[in-house]
Description:
5 helices, mainly alpha
Amino acid sequence: MSALKIAFETPENPANSSAAGRPPIDFAQLTKQTMGDKDLEIEVLQLFARLARQTIAEIHDAEAEACGQSGHRLKGAALAVGAARVAEAA
Length: 90
């Protein structure tokens, strides 16, 4: 349940859904990445959420080259947790 809260509950998204109606995280992929360790899933999602917020702030304040680097870092992190749509956008 905690992993679901981390993945879906954000200040901008309190209703636990995405605009497209699909979950933002592929939990099957996340479970595979963490070998089914639920505590590790929570830790990985917390790290991803923190990195995503930090990256958005960096992109907001950065020049084009720095934005590209931040986007690349976000893409890798998104792929690691199964957030394919975030990775595509990054």
